[in-house]
Design brief:
By secondary structure, the chain is of the alpha/beta class. The chain has one domain: 3-Layer(aba) Sandwich (Glutaredoxin), CATH 3.40.30.10. It is about 35% helix and about 20% strand. The N and C termini lie far apart (about 35 Å).
């Protein structure tokens, strides 16, 4: 196979689109029962797109393990700001934050984002 071979079939994750501050607060509260992963993505940034695509490709989690949320921070900047406020994690993009029992158990940005490490953080 060469550079231009048929692309590996893309994984489709069951992303929950995060669009409101109320939805964010519910996700944080629900993390007491089921961990939550927040992926903050800038749709205008090629680095963010690469991180997002790489994350999806490398994701090995089972559907019931964790709720995974997708935030288009260009459209919903207020929600991104609220994430920083409620988690005490300084805003970055792209960024992944994993919550378990309402506490941050994993955070990473840019090329440090690891689907494997995010999953490992909830075990």
């Amino acid at each position: 196979m060469g550079w231009f071979s048929k692309k590996e079939e893309e994984k489709k994750l069951n992303w929950i689109e995060l669009t409101t501050e109320q939805q964010l607060e519910e996700a944080i509260n629900r993390s007491s029962e089921k961990p939550a992963l927040l992926f903050k993505h800038s749709t205008r940034c090629s680095i963010s797109s690469m991180a997002f695509n790489g994350f999806q490709t490398r994701w090995q989690g089972e559907e019931g393990d964790i709720d995974i949320y997708y935030l288009d921070l260009i459209r919903f900047r207020n929600v991104s700001d609220k994430i920083a406020e409620l988690t005490n994690v300084i805003h970055q993009s792209p960024q992944v934050i994993v919550l378990k029992n309402k506490e941050v158990v994993y955070t990473a940005t840019h090329s440090s984002i690891s689907a494997h490490d995010a999953l490992k953080s909830i075990q």
